[in-house]
């Protein structure tokens, strides 16, 4: 009886939330997908004009070049919005008395998650279509987990703070993409490539290692509020950041090895 009542309450909550904010949800997701298409097309046009070596790239390299333009633009947008919403605005502040921090949301926070969901849908579709040239299994796992967590927080309003903390890690994406661009452009031995390597290590350490430690501490301190979320929400808060943190550690080790190899070749 209690289980049925709980399921009914969850269904009513989801239905009422979607009815009240359906326009924000659908318009933001669709807008995010169209924005990705626009960035891809603009990247194709401007790169062919200003980078003479673009025409000499293989078809798969051209696709990846434009795909990385999409991820760079999304990373800049979502990092700025995540930092604002999670740390600078009052929406998730402990000083606020407007309910549990795990249940707070706003029209802006929901809209931003919708745009990000549109990006993850687009990028995941491209990864699957061109698999494995745009990324292997680890990229699929990363994007699937991210898309599920973003979509759940967007539709239910639960756990948005933790989703935004995780999304701050996208701050490392522009550096990763720049490294690939420099490599393709034949600038692997340049000073810019070396500086980029050091910046990647620093950014990764802050945004994908230390920030995740802070997230786990926040969840621990606020676990009395976390456990009042729905079962699937608790699962996402507990499991998704942990899996992503493990992936981040693996990738961090690869970045360190790559930087070490670059330094060794210069001596």
Automatic annotation (TrEMBL):
Topology relative to the membrane: Multi-pass membrane protein
First-listed, main subcellular location of the protein, grouped into a coarse class: membrane
GO terms, biological process: lipid homeostasis
Transmembrane helix in keyword set: yes
GO cellular component terms, semicolon-separated: endoplasmic reticulum; membrane
Compartment(s) where it occurs, according to its Swiss-Prot or TrEMBL record: Membrane
Keywords of the record: Membrane, Transmembrane, Transmembrane helix
Transmembrane segments: 23-40, 69-88, 108-130, 194-221, 233-256
InterPro entries: TLC-dom (IPR006634), TLCD (IPR050846)
TLC domain sequence ranges: 60-264
Origin: domain of life: Eukaryota
PANTHER family: CT120 PROTEIN (PTHR13439), EXPRESSED PROTEIN (PTHR13439:SF71)
UniProt protein name: TLC domain-containing protein
